[in-house]
Each structure stands twice: as structure tokens, then as C-alpha cells.
TrEMBL record:
SMART domains: CBS (SM00116). The keyword Amino-acid biosynthesis applies. It comes from the Archaea. One of its GO terms (biological process) is methionine biosynthetic process. Residues 383-439, 446-502 form the CBS domain. PANTHER family: CBS DOMAIN-CONTAINING PROTEIN (PTHR43080:SF2), CBS DOMAIN-CONTAINING PROTEIN CBSX3, MITOCHONDRIAL (PTHR43080). Keywords: Amino-acid biosynthesis, CBS domain, Methionine biosynthesis. This is Homocysteine biosynthesis protein. Pfam families: CBS, HcyBio. The keyword Translocase does not apply.
Length: 502
């Protein structure tokens, strides 16, 4: 048995359609079976509400008198991209204020406009014969704009990695604050309520499909940027009219140490046309998995610590490395439910008509890494390979001699297996020598918590370590924690001075 989209739309028009949310569908299928569920249910609504950084809006401001070709544009001191047309601009949600930094950004401007608040437009131009005006400043409401169209390059993530942090310091990321030593796990997404989780083969989701976007009716433009359907990480490009949106479903936010983002409420009504839709919308949180990824590793390909289900994540605790770790969601399941319920109401009232994709999502597509023609230099290329070391049992007088002879200010400390266990500096030894009455050895004055690097680490990351810890050198260690080099601020200074060539 199959149902056409026309049959479903006729039922919606006549008020006879059975509409359920994705949260309700699994129990219906379990109770009735797939064939009966196909006959019974016409539409399944989905919803999600989370941070979607890759969002923004196009604006047309209308012409001033005399006219101006805006070459640079600011809205409440947040710069928008003006390289489109004379009085058009695109404002990205994550763009930060030139005066307030990450406390205010493009997402806040969009929320202010939707909320009915006035926004200051400021623009400059070099002036031309047909556009003689060089500056303009005015205050605008959303209703004053000719066009205010939200166009989000990457929304409705099919899946999102959960995040943990194996380092010994707090990390501030787009996945929120991650506590050291895997002290918490942060995740995002509505699980079984999420749109693409209910159509993983993109059977009824694609270009032209109507959606709920920010409280307004919108549309799927097509695949989102960085969409990787073949690996289960698809995204959608979406659009909708800003003038019909609500601050209940569009909210600006700032993540400490990361910057501005925008929370977007998004839902897609799925027409139940065949058994493929029935089976995919019967998904539960127990069926959906994601990886807990170690954000403590500063690499594109971060290691996955384990696979988890959304049911485990939503329980509030998971087991990680033999310990129970708290989980927390960056997205709101309560708001996702509201999106799905609001969308259900629209369909039941007949205020939204369903359609099948005018262009299908390419299910085999997968993202590729950046092609880098000039590689970032690695620590091994600039480090000092000849390193003077000392053992922890030696007297500090020997450390002083080595510091003098080795023309270095840092001595890595090795244990009996020649592994790094500490470090002393000229300053440490100077303080110890100033106490001649005490017979001290190296272990008594060394710093045991050593900030280190590896030969394959990018020098940018190593430089951040030096800056963050206010130190001037890093021991370079191999996988067995043997010291194979030393990276100093002097080495990095030579690099920045242009001595390293790509």
C-alpha cells in the first residue's frame, strides 16, 4: 500500500488527516503494526531547537535620498556583508559587535528585529555618480525593511557528536564548557524527534519541502553546507520570512570562550506515503547513536572515546572510562516538543500544504577535509633536538652547572626509565641556591606538572600553550614520554620572523 501526496493533502484540506508527532509514532507502529500504521497515520511532525551557528538573514533596506551604494554596513555595530547590491546585506548570526565583542552579535540583531526592537543601520560608501551619498545612519524596525529573509546555510543536523575533555584544564567550546579529565559530557540534538533522524535516507526530505522555521513557515532549499549524508552527518539549507518569526523560536546566545550563536526552532512535517516512512519514523532514542569525542585533542580528527545512544545521553549519566559521568544537553527537548506540536497544529488546521522534494538529497555525498597547499609547520621542524636533561636524584648544584654549560634556562627531569617527570628552570635553581643551609636535590624543587608538546603538534597549538601557561619552553616528548627535543619561545620567534619557509 502507498499513499500519494495529493491524497494526504486532500485529507489535510478536509480536516480528516491523522497527524502525530515523531515522539508518538513509535508506539503507534508497535501497537498497530507497519501496514495499519501506514493506513492510520498521514503526517508525522518533527522538531528540534538548538544552536545553529551557520544561520543568518538577507536584508534589503530600500534606497536613501540621495541614493547610496553601501560598501560597508553595520547593524547595531555588527558588520553585515554588503558585497551584494547597493542596499542589500547578509548578516551572519555569529558575527560579533565591533563595540561589545561576543556579548552581542548578528543573532542578537536578528532577535531584536523579530522582537519589534529598533536597530541602528550605519553604512559608508566612497560615492559614485549614480550613488553620490557617502554615509547614512538611521534606525529601522523589521516592518521598515523591504526584505528580511532568513537563509541558513547549515541547519537541522542529522547527528552531532557528544563532547568530552581529557585534558587537565577547562575547555570553552561550541559544545559548551567541558570539564577536565572527562568530568562531563555535552551533547546536542532532539534525538528521535529530530527531522533527519526520522528520514535518514532522505526519502521525503529535500528541496522545496515546507518546514517550521523560527515560528514561521519556511522551506528546505537543499543540502546544507558541510552536509555528509554518507557518514550520517547530513545538514539542510533552510529559508523563511523573518517578518513572521517569533522570539519564542529564535534566540541569540553567547558561549563563553567561543562566541555568538543562534538557537533556531526547526521542524519538518513528514508525509507518510509508504512503509519506508513508517519504519523510519518509528525510531526511538535507543536506536540512535553518536560518538563521545575528545575535544581535548586539538585535531580535525579527534578520537572517539565511545559510542552512546541518545537514550543514554538523555538519562543524565553515562559510563566513560569506567566512571559515571554527567551528561547535559545544549539543545532544548522541551522546545523541540513545542515545535513538533505547533507544526502538528498547522497541519491539522490545513494552514500548511505538504510536498515531496523537487530535488533529492544526494545520499552518497560526504565532506572532504580542506586541501592545504601550505602546511602549518610542526614542532619537529623548529624544535631544538639537542636537549640537556637531569635526573630527579641529582643535587641542585649539578642542575646549576648544567644550566650554565648547556646555555639553556630549562632542564627536563627524567626518572630511572628516562621518562619525563618534571622540569626545573634557572629561576627555580636560583631560589634554591639562595637557601644554602638546605641540602636539596632536583626532586625537591622541580615542577611536576609539566606542560609538554609532541613533534607532530602544530606550532600554533604549541604557541597557545606557552601563552596560556605563561611559560617560555615546552619539552617535546614521544609516545613513551621520552624527551626528544625542546621548543622555546626563541624557536617560535624565529619562525614568526620568516625563517621557516613553506
Amino acid at each position: 500500500m502507498e499513499k500519494s501526496i495529493d491524497e494526504i493533502n486532500i485529507r489535510i484540506r478536509d480536516g480528516n488527516a491523522r497527524v502525530v508527532t515523531a515522539e508518538e509514532m513509535p508506539d503507534i507502529v508497535a501497537e498497530l503494526g507497519e501496514e495499519a500504521a501506514l493506513r492510520e497515520v498521514d503526517v508525522v511532525t518533527t522538531g528540534t531547537f538548538g544552536a545553529m551557528c551557520s544561520s543568518g538573514a538577507f536584508f534589503n533596506f530600500g534606497h536613501a535620498d540621495p541614493p547610496i551604494r553601501m560598501e560597508r554596513v553595520w547593524l547595531n555595530d555588527v558588520e553585515a556583508y554588503a558585497g551584494i547590491a547597493a542596499v542589500d546585506a547578509y548578516l551572519g548570526a555569529t558575527q560579533q559587535s565591533t563595540t561589545q565583542g561576543d556579548r552581542y552579535g548578528g543573532a542578537h540583531v536578528i532577535e531584536d528585529l523579530i522582537s519589534g526592537r529598533s536597530v541602528e543601520l550605519r553604512a559608508i560608501s566612497r560615492g559614485t555618480d549614480c550613488y553620490p551619498l557617502r554615509t547614512v545612519t538611521t534606525n529601522l524596525l523589521l516592518e521598515d525593511l523591504n526584505t528580511a529573509t532568513m537563509l541558513n546555510p547549515r541547519n537541522a543536523y542529522q547527528c552531532y557528536n557528544a563532547a568530552a575533555n581529557s585534558t587537565d584544564r577547562v575547555l570553552h567550546t561550541y559544545m559548551g564548557t567541558l570539564l577536565p579529565n572527562c568530568g562531563n559530557v555535552s551533547y546536542s540534538g532532539a534525538g528521535a524527534l529530530s527531522p533527519l533522524a526520522n528520514d535518514p535516507t532522505y526519502h521525503v526530505i529535500g528541496s522545496g519541502v515546507p518546514i517550521f522555521l523560527g515560528g514561521a513557515q519556511g522551506m528546505v532549499v537543499g543540502e546544507g553546507t558541510q552536509s555528509s549524508p554518507a557518514t550520517g552527518f547530513a545538514t539542510l539549507m533552510t529559508t523563511g520570512d523573518l517578518t513572521h518569526m517569533s522570539p519564542d523560536y529564535i534566540r541569540a546566545a553567547t558561549f563563553q570562550g567561543y562566541g555568538v550563536t543562534m538557537y533556531v526552532g526547526l521542524g519538518i512535517p513528514l508525509p507518510v506515503t509508504d512503509l519506508t516512512v513508517v519504519r523510519s519514523t518509528a525510531v526511538r532514542d535507543e536506536d540512535l547513536t553518536t560518538g563521545v569525542v575528545d575535544y581535548g585533542v586539538p585535531s580535525r580528527d579527534r578520537p572517539t572515546l565511545r559510542r552512546v545512544t541518545y537514550a543514554e545521553l538523555k538519562s543524565g549519566r553515562i559510563e566513560l572510562n569506567g566512571e559515571e559521568v554527567r551528561t547535559s544537553s545544549l539543545s532544548s527537548y522541551r522546545k523541540a516538543r513545542q515545535v513538533a506540536e505547533a507544526l502538528k497544529g498547522w497541519v491539522e488546521m490545513g494552514s500548511i500544504a505538504l510536498s515531496l522534494p523537487t530535488r533529492r538529497v544526494e545520499a552518497s555525498r560526504r565532506t572532504r577535509p580542506m586541501r592545504e597547499t601550505k602546511l602549518v609547520p610542526r614542532v619537529r621542524e623548529v624544535m631544538e633536538a639537542k636537549v640537556v636533561c637531569i635526573t630527579e636524584d641529582e643535587p641542585i648544584t649539578e642542575a646549576a652547572l648544567k644550566l650554565l654549560r648547556g646555555e639553556t634556562n630549562h632542564l627536563p627531569i627524567l626518572d630511572g626509565d628516562r621518562r619525563l617527570v618534571g622540569i626545573v628552570t634557572t629561576y627555580d635553581v636560583t631560589k634554591a641556591v639562595a637557601r644554602p643551609g638546605e641540602r636539596l636535590c632536583v626532586r625537591d624543587i622541580m615542577t611536576r606538572k609539566v606542560v609538554r608538546t609532541t613533534p607532530e603538534e602544530a606550532v600554533d597549538i604549541a604557541a597557545q600553550k606557552l601563552e596560556r601557561h605563561n611559560i617560555s619552553a615546552l619539552p617535546v616528548v614521544d609516545p613513551q614520554n621520552h624527551v626528544i627535543g625542546m621548543l622555546t619561545a626563541i624557536n617560535l620567534g624565529k619562525l614568526l620572523g620568516g625563517r621557516w619557509k613553506a
